[in-house]
Amino acid sequence: MIFVFNWKMNPTKKEEAKSLFGFYYQSLKKKNLKKIIIAPPFLYLPLFFKKGIPLAAQNCFYQGKGPYTGEISPLMLKSFQIKYVILGHSERRRYAKETNEEVAKKAKVAIENNLTPIICFGEEKKEKNLREKNIFSQLKPFSFLFQKKFSQKKIFLAYEPVWAIGTGLPCPLVEVERIALKIKKFFGQENFTNYLFLYGGSLNSNNIRNYYSSLVDGFLIGGASLKKKEVKKILTLVNS
Ligand code: PEP
Questions:
Q1: pLDDT tens-digit series, residues 12-50
Q2: Domain boundaries, the chain
């Protein structure tokens, strides 16, 4: 199981970020440092990258360099030894109006630069009949992964139904498993199998154990990643 902690746009002060990161570091047994990934805001990445806990950026651009004011290149992440990048989070789709095609373009460039993208997807509304249609229209631009040169590349696919994010209403495990199987079928038919399937949406220290399943390889945790009490309990699970 891999645990990805997404701090989103928090905390606002460098000292708080250092204290939170230190708390993670102290709560983890040294042998388990690599079982988690922390995704802090960009500015904090260089503060932590030598500590041994893998880090993820929360976004990157689909060009390597050039006149793209305000963007961060995958090459820059690489030069800071950042190995992971979250792409297509629903909050970026919502507030930065990122499209499926843009997310796929970013993922392609990230992979070409040996970063592992954590690609987020998931339906907006809890309408069962539209769920699969929405999910597969989000994933369609990722068919570039079926090219031979990508077949051995590792990616994370994070199923995050938007209605479950930050709402206290996680998606029931049976539904998560159903999506995991559909994804397996979708990518498996083209022999693209080198991915991990993650679930994210209102996970916390009380419910995360319910999501341990042979079909779920890990978790994406938002709100709970900022609360030390929650972090402590979740990391106790990681250590056990
Ligand atoms: C997220 O934003 O990726 C997420 C899973 O958030 P939360 O855990 O707060 O639902």
A1: 999 999 999 999 999 999 999 999 999 999 999 999 988
A2: 2-239
pLDDT, one tens digit per residue, over 156-200 is 999 999 999 999 999 999 999 999 999 999 888 888 889 999 999
Looking at the predicted structure, is the pLDDT value of residue 126 above 90? no
Does the beta carbon of 166 lie inside 6 Å of ligand 1?
Answer: yes
Q: Within a 13 Å sphere around the CA of 16, how many CA atoms are in the beta-carbon half?
A: 11
Q: What is the pLDDT of residue 143?
A: 92
Give the CATH number of domain 2-239; options: 3.20.20.70, 3.30.565.10, 3.30.70.240, 3.40.50.720.
Answer: 3.20.20.70
Whole-number Å distance between alpha carbons of 13 and 75? 26
Residue 112 known to be catalytic? no
Which of 160, 169, 211 best tests ligand 1's pocket when mutated (most atoms within 8 Å of CB)?
160
**pLDDT at residue 197, as a whole number:** 97
Tell me the CA–centroid distance for residue 166 and ligand 1, in Å: 5
